[in-house]
């Protein structure tokens, strides 16, 4: 039997001025699972193959200039789910000039999550 390959992955590490508020938003609004013991200065959340880490910062300006991009065929279903959940600051799901169908979500601190897929994946 062939050994499974553990591919390298990119995992965003975003700033958060309030780890507990970040935990609540990602868990309760976006459906992520908290995957490490409760800590005041670091948070790891995961949903399927998506994993995001957060580090505590007192600088409230940092999240407003931070973002990550999440890409794949699951994106249309995520937009439908987030819409049904009433997630605030959810953009329309539309084809952008660079030919990606995308939507955006800002978390409570300003971190931008950009979700996208090729239009033919929809």
UniProtKB/TrEMBL annotation:
InterPro entries: Bleomycin-R, Glyas_Bleomycin-R_OHBP_Dase, Glyas_Fos-R_dOase_dom, VOC_core. The keyword Magnesium does not apply. Keywords: Antibiotic resistance. GO terms for biological process: response to antibiotic. Residues 4-118 form the VOC domain. Belongs to the bleomycin resistance protein family. This is Bleomycin resistance protein. It comes from Mesorhizobium zhangyense.
């Amino acid at each position: 039997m062939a050994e499974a390959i553990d591919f390298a992955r990119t995992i965003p590490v975003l700033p958060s001025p309030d780890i507990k508020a970040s935990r609540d938003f990602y868990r309760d609004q976006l459906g992520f699972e908290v995957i490490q013991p409760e800590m005041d200065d670091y948070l790891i959340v995961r949903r399927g193959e998506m994993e995001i880490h957060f580090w505590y910062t007192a600088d409230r300006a940092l999240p407003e200039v931070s973002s990550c991009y999440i890409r794949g065929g699951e994106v249309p279903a995520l937009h439908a789910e987030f819409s049904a959940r009433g997630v605030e600051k959810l953009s329309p799901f539309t084809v952008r000039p660079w030919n990606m169908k995308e939507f955006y979500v800002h978390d409570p601190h300003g971190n931008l999550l950009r979700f996208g897929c090729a239009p033919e994946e929809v």
